[in-house]
Amino acid sequence: MELRLDGKVALVTGGSRGIGRAIATEFARSGARVVISSRKADALEVAAKEIRELTWGEVETFAANAGDPESAAACVSHTIERFGSIDVLVNNAATNPYMGPMIDIDLPRLDKTYDVNLRGAFVWIQQAWQQHMRANGGNVINLSSIGGLSVETSIGHYNVTKAALLHLTRSLAKDLAPGVRVNAICPGLVKTDMARALWESHEDAVSAMVPLGRLGEPEDIANAALFLASPASEWMTGTMMVIDGGMLL
Ligand SMILES: NC(=O)c1ccc[n+]([C@@H]2O[C@H](COP(=O)([O-])OP(=O)(O)OC[C@H]3O[C@@H](n4cnc5c(N)ncnc54)[C@H](OP(=O)(O)O)[C@@H]3O)[C@@H](O)[C@H]2O)c1
Fold it and tell me: Of 135, 175, 189, 193, which is most buried by a Cβ count within 10 Å?
């Protein structure tokens, strides 16, 4: 099965590195025109250049904080102005500024976690809907986590946002059907900067707990995102794909 996105325009938040960058690369390789967004303009430019060289695809950048509604609106507008459409929105940017007992978190970091991971995801969907998808249809992919399906209290508030994101996915899938599909991906432990503290010092031991014997690579998740973005999944909405090497088992 060849999964193609020819003629499609995709916006990937958190696209400068890690899973978002792998998704943007896979989309560009599959024929989509892609806008990547994150906070740091210089890192975005470097990533876009490398993705272009790798895929020969059209990749643009827009610096935006995913937790800032005005930035979200501006980035969606820019995508439509630059490429004429926004067919696929990948809500990938997320933050985890606190590790430790849930009960002890300070309110600024609590607010940041919710503002970026949950409120932010909703605002980007709302902007995509209002500016383009309501009239033209579209496809939304939310990056949740197996943390949204299990309990790990040291990253408890992050996991609460990921659980809520799954409910947001199901609710909006129903609300926005049939024109817009909304699905979620729940990765297990993937080797990126965000998860570095969870694996770097003891990768062999963590890998031994994964039934398929290794940690995830960003490309494992990008393949699933490509499937959800493509017509091959056209009868899927409101679902979540767990991609974790069997960790949840
Ligand atoms: N890695 C894992 O094991 C794992 C497991 C389950 C779920 N996930 C989920 O997968 C997604 C991607 O994670 P990742 O591991 O690829 O993370 P990552 O390697 O740390 O990359 C995060 C990306 O998001 C951007 N970003 C961070 N905060 C942002 C903000 N406030 N506004 C806009 N952009 C922001 C970063 O760029 P800037 O810093 O320049 O803004 C970067 O491009 C997240 O939703 C994460 O929760 C990851």
Answer: 189
